[in-house]
Design goal:
mainly alpha; 35% helix
């Protein structure tokens, strides 16, 4: 991943390098992020269930 990032940085410069470009060059999936409409307020897991009743 680091080697792919270095190559892209040299070609495009830091400001024009995207995570997707680095991931593609490294052969991995960048996944979803805010640019894909993913909301940062979305929780990946449900809230924890209390294990003890208040006393």
């Amino acid at each position: 991943m680091l080697a792919a990032a270095r190559e892209i940085f040299v070609e495009r410069g830091y400001e024009r390098t995207t995570i997707r470009a680095v991931a593609a060059a490294a052969g991995v999936n960048a996944g979803r992020g805010p640019a894909d409409g993913w909301r940062t307020s979305r929780r990946p897991f449900p809230p924890p269930t209390p294990t003890c009743a208040p006393g």
